[in-house]
Specification:
four-stranded antiparallel sheet; 16 helices; 18% strand
């Protein structure tokens, strides 16, 4: 049985690896070899990676691909994507090429506010608290001036501070609800530093407010933290063209295709079971670019899915219409992203990805991430409403199955020829491998 370990964080890297190998594996030598084969031969680069997180033992690689031919607001982009799922990059690239001859993607950043909150407990007269806030609001700005100074030079900073009464939901619970503009940085550290100073100011000034009783002066700060829900940091991406222009090899009847496509989207709008998978497809594209550019995909995921449920029921992020013979497909999603700070200046491949994207601003990156998600969604819905999702996906997945069974070059050639005219499934591939080997 495995046992607990004391002081693991103080072990050297070698000692961590040896402890893991001996504790969890029957063949420790093989385990150590597997761990070390993913080390970078460049010691300086490996040390950089080691210091990104704690208790590092090795690197966990994900493939980085490129989806070219994205025509966005009249300019072409090749979009870097980091993801482990087969067919995602191919699908995005296929959609990009499809729409590049039909006007391309149009995008707009509708707003870019980010949010943080100071959560506190106040037991007393609400009108007194409101008066206190009104009189002291200017101090909240002045006391954070040293933190916001550099951000303000770039056009950002604290936009507004509001006192929110949440006592109907939780006894004595209030918050300072703060909106920020962080320009090209994601701004998490900046926002949290501001919030902690605001909390300190709230506590100090409440002690000096004469209208408060002794009990009312004892405001209890529960926590000060940014929110990953950013419903006012929104980007819109869309494609549109005359219905007849949708025609291509697999869309012989564009009118029927467009109508079926719109119905598929409407199903996702009203059916949560479908909406979750529908939106997961969008996030295949979104997360892949967010990862490639060194941003926080967990924060993006949490915010986007909260936004999808903002009506009280989880629904589709994308929408489609046919009006006056024009097919339009679009979505609006919240994306709090940065192109400076964090890993953007540390991770060599993140810097490379941003170079490939022509060194975008945060607003430009929001737009490129959004079009990748929309392209991925279009590709999925096109497959679902025509040939079915598995035909393309399983062909892309074929290599994974062959690698699992260590297929030889000759076996790969024979299998590829067989599946030119046959449907790929895991069982059929395994059966064919076994027959070839007999």
């Amino acid at each position: 049985m495995n046992k607990a370990v004391a002081g693991f964080s103080k072990f050297s890297k070698e000692d961590k690896i040896n402890w893991i190998a001996n504790e969890f594996f029957s063949n420790p030598t093989d385990a150590v070899a597997t761990i070390k084969q993913y080390w970078n031969s460049n010691e300086k680069l490996q040390q950089l990676h080691d210091e990104f997180i704690e208790n590092t033992i090795t690197n966990f690689y994900l493939p980085m691909g490129i989806a070219p031919n994205f025509l966005v607001n009249g300019n072409y982009y090749s979009i870097p994507m980091v993801i482990e799922e087969s067919s995602v990059v191919a699908a995005a690239a296929k959609s990009a090429k499809f729409w590049s001859t039909r006007g391309g993607f149009k995008t707009t950043v509708l707003s870019s506010e980010k949010i943080g909150q100071v959560h506190f407990i106040y037991k007393g007269d609400v009108q007194k608290l409101e008066l206190f806030f009104k009189e002291n609001k200017p101090k909240f700005f002045t006391r954070t001036a040293s933190i916001t100074k550099n951000m303000q030079k770039r056009g950002g900073g604290i936009l507004d501070i509001q006192l929110i009464n949440k006592t109907k939901e939780l006894d004595n619970y209030f918050q300072l609800h703060v909106t920020f503009e962080t320009k090209d940085s994601m701004g998490a550290n900046f926002i949290n530093s501001c919030l902690e100073q605001l909390a300190e100011t709230l506590k100090e000034e409440s002690q000096q407010f004469d209208a408060f009783s002794e009990e009312e002066k004892n405001i209890q700060i529960i926590m000060s933290i940014l929110s990953n829900y950013v419903p006012n940091c929104i980007v819109r991406a869309e494609v549109s063209c005359p219905v007849e222009d949708l025609a291509e090899k697999k869309i012989e009847n564009p009118k029927e295709f467009a109508e079926k496509f719109v119905q598929a989207v409407r199903i996702a709008e009203i059916e949560p079971f479908r909406a979750v998978t529908h939106n997961k497809g969008i996030m295949n594209g979104v997360d892949a670019v967010v990862l490639a550019t060194g941003n926080d995909f967990r924060a993006v995921e949490a915010g986007v899915h909260a936004y999808a449920a903002r009506s009280g029921r989880y629904s589709s992020l994308s929408h489609a219409t046919i009006e006056n013979g024009i097919f339009t497909f679009w979505m609006e999603i919240p994306l709090a992203l940065g192109t400076v700070g964090g890993l953007t200046s540390l991770h060599p491949l993140v810097k490379l990805a941003l170079e490939i994207l022509n060194k975008p601003s945060a607003h430009q990156l929001m737009q490129l991430v959004a079009v990748t998600g929309l392209a991925q969604n279009f590709a999925a819905l096109r497959s679902l409403t025509t040939t079915g999702i598995q035909e393309g996906h399983m062909k892309m997945h074929l290599n994974n199955i062959l690698n699992q069974h260590q297929a030889t070059l000759e076996e790969r050639k024979a299998i590829a020829k067989h599946f030119e005219k046959n449907v790929v499934s895991h069982a059929s591939v395994v059966e064919l491998i076994e027959n070839l080997r007999k």
